[in-house]
Specification:
Blueprint lengths: L10 H18 L1 E5 H21 L3 E11 L9 E4 L2 E4 L1 E11 L1 H13 L3 E3 L12 E3 L1 H12 L8 E8 L6 E7 L1
Antiparallel strand pairs: 1-9, 2-5, 3-4, 6-7, 8-9
Helix pairs in contact: 1-2, 2-3, 2-4
């Protein structure tokens, strides 16, 4: 008996497909796919959410001092001339930072093995790199999904059948987070 579905693809293409679908499921909250793919994606996604639930509170808050560049009213850095060179002026600011404990760090790295990086592009700046920002899905898993599913012991996803696909008759489903 097979341990997983092969989905009619070579191993590298199958892994890429599943990683992509898991990333999109966790980013958007639901995806539309075939039933066989959804069952495979469900396994991976539920494992990642379980890691997030276990390790959600496993960090220390550390206060650090950081140098932050002084800025003028336009948001540009303030520079002064020292020994004939322009040098940026800095302020020292104390910040609180979450420092992962070893088990949470390991869980974060396990998640990063599966998840692809996500870049959010605003609609008005489509095609431009200026307004984009990176989304930290591991932080979203720990902060949102870890807290949301803390009382649950599994069963974080739901599969809803929506009918057969027109071309080949494969069962289409919506896989969503509960």
């Amino acid at each position: 008996m097979a341990m997983y579905r092969k989905l009619g693809k070579k191993s590298d293409a199958r892994k890429a497909l599943l990683r992509n679908q898991v990333t999109q499921l966790l980013y958007h909250g639901k995806i539309e796919t075939t039933e066989a793919r959804a069952k495979e994606v469900r396994k991976i996604a539920e494992h990642l959410i379980t890691l997030a639930v276990k390790e959600k509170d496993n960090f220390d808050e550390v206060t650090v001092t950081a140098k932050v560049a002084k800025k003028d009213k336009d948001g540009k850095r303030i520079k002064e001339v020292v020994d004939g060179k322009k040098v940026t002026q800095y302020d020292e600011v104390e910040k609180k930072v979450k420092k992962d404990q070893p088990s949470r760090l390991h869980a974060r790295r396990q998640m990063l093995k599966v998840l692809y990086p996500v870049v959010e592009v605003p609609t008005e700046a489509a095609g431009k790199k200026a307004g984009t920002k990176k989304v930290d899905l591991t932080a979203k898993l720990f902060d949102e999904y870890g807290v949301k599913y803390a009382g649950r012991k599994g069963g974080y996803t739901r599969i809803v059948k929506i009918g057969e696909r027109r071309g080949d008759g494969a069962m289409k489903v919506i896989l969503e987070l509960v």
